[in-house]
Amino acid sequence: MAARPLVSVFSLTGEKAGETSLPSVMTAPLRPDIVQFVHTNMNKNHRQAYAVSVRAGKNVSASSWGTGRAVARIPRVGGGGTSRTGQGAFGNMCRGGRMFAPTKTWRKWHRRINTTQKRYAVSSALAATAVPALVMARGHKIDDVPEIPLVLDDSVEATRKTSAAKDVLAAVGALEDVDKAADSKKIRAGKGKARNRRYVLRCGPLVVYASDDGVERAFRNLPGVELCNVSRLNLLQLAPGGHMGRFCVWSKAALESLDSIYGDDGKALPETQMDNADLARIINSDEVQSVCNPAKRANKRHLRKKNAIKNVKALEKLDPYAAAARIAETRAMNARAKSRDAVLKKRREVRKEKKQYKAAGKAFYEKVSKQGDVCEDGNFGEV
C-alpha cells in the first residue's frame, strides 16, 4: 500500500505529541447520494407504530334512508327528539365521522437496507470527516482547531470529569463548537414540545473512542456532544440529517483501529469509479488527444431548402420540363407586357375613329327629327 498522509496526535494540553498515518477508509469516495439514501431509511427504523381507534367515528347507530327521499344516501343517525337525529354519520365528510383511510398499526414502518450499501455510506461519512471544507460547510466552528481530523492522545479515554473534558476541548480549540450547540437550544416548534421532546439544539463534536475508561461520563453532559465506540460507528451520528462532514474528535487508538475494521483484514473498502477525477486533464492529455479525430474547425453550412412552387431552379432539379414550361410562360408574359402599349394605342385610335362617325350620326338624326311626321298631312305617301 502506498504511503498515506500523516496525522498529528495532540496531548490533552493541546501540544503535538506524535504522529500517526491516516486510515485507508479516510480516502474512500464521497457519495452524498448513498449517504442520504441510507440515512433516510435508517432513520425510519426507530419509529413506533401509531393508529386511531378502530371505533373512532363509529360509536353511533346509523343507517342510510335509501333512495326516494331527496337526500344523500349517507348513513344517518336514527331515533328522535334530538338535533342529532337524521344527521349524517360514519363518513369522513360528516361531523363526528371517521377519518379517511383510518391509520393502522400494521403500516410498513421499518426499512431493510443492503449491508454493502450501509458500509459504503459509513465509509463515505468517515472520509468526509477528514475534509475541513465539508466540516465547516456543515456548520461546525473549527477555526481554532489545529488539524482535521483531530486526534488526541489515548489518555483522553481516562477522562472522568466534565470540567476536565471542557479543559481538553478548550485546549484543542473545539470548545467553540460546543458553545455554538449550547447557544442554539430552542423550544421545538409543533406538538413535539408536549411529547417529551421539548428542546432542540444543533450538533456538536462527536467523540470517538476505543475503550471507555470514563470518557462517556466525562463528555456526555456537554450540550451537543455525542460519543461513539469506534467498533459501533453509526451513520446517524456520522452524518446527522444525511449531511456528511461531522466534526469528530478521535482518540489515537480509535483512529488506528480503523485500519483493522476496514481494509484487507476487515470490511471491504469501496472502490472509486475514477482514480483521477480531473476529467479535463484526462481529456487534454497527449495520450487521449493523439488518438482523437482532429477538431472540426467550422460546421458545415446547410443550404436553405427552396420551395419548388416559388423557385424555378428548385423546380428544375425536380422536373426540368415543368421548369421549361414555366420559363416559357414567364417570357410570354413579359412579351405581352412590352407590347401592351402598342395594343392600347391601336385600340384608342379605333375608338376615336368610331367617335367621329357617332357624332355625324347624331347630327343627321337631329336634322331628320326637325322635319316632323311624314303622315301628319294625311296624304299617306300620295303625290
Q: What would your notes on this structure say?
A:
This protein is an alpha/beta fold and 383 residues long. The chain has 13 helices and 10 strands. It has helices at 32-42, 115-128, 132-137, 162-171, 175-183, 215-219, 235-238, 252-261, 279-283, 286-289, 312-318, 320-338, 340-370; strands spanning 6-10, 16-21, 62-63, 76-77, 150-152, 186-187, 199-200, 206-209, 226-229, 248-251. It has a 6-stranded mixed β-sheet. A two-stranded antiparallel sheet has the order 3-4. Strand 8, helix 6 and strand 9 form a beta-alpha-beta unit. Helix 1 (32-42) crosses helix 2 and helix 11 packs antiparallel against helix 12. The protein is elongated, with a radius of gyration of 50 Å. The model has no long low-confidence stretch (mean pLDDT 91).
Quickly list its features.
single chain; 383 residues; alpha/beta; six-stranded mixed β-sheet; two-stranded antiparallel sheet; 10 strands; 35% helix; elongated
Mean pLDDT: 91
Task: Give a count of the beta strands, DSSP E runs of length 2 or more.
Answer: 10
Euclidean distance between termini CA atoms? 157 Å
SS summary, helix count: 13
Strand order of the largest sheet: 2-1-5-10-8-9
Structural class: alpha/beta
Largest sheet: 6 strands, mixed
Question: Uncertain regions: pLDDT < 50 for 5+ in a row?
Answer: none
What is the overall silhouette? elongated
Strand content: 5-15%
Q: Write the element-wise H/E pattern from the N-terminal end onward.
A: EEHEEHHEHHEEEHEHEHHHHHH
Round the Cα radius of gyration to an integer and report it: 50 Å
Give the helix/strand layout.
Elements: E1 6-10, E2 16-21, H1 32-42, E3 62-63, E4 76-77, H2 115-128, H3 132-137, E5 150-152, H4 162-171, H5 175-183, E6 186-187, E7 199-200, E8 206-209, H6 215-219, E9 226-229, H7 235-238, E10 248-251, H8 252-261, H9 279-283, H10 286-289, H11 312-318, H12 320-338, H13 340-370
Parallel strand pairs: 1-5, 5-10, 8-9, 8-10
Antiparallel strand pairs: 1-2, 3-4, 6-7
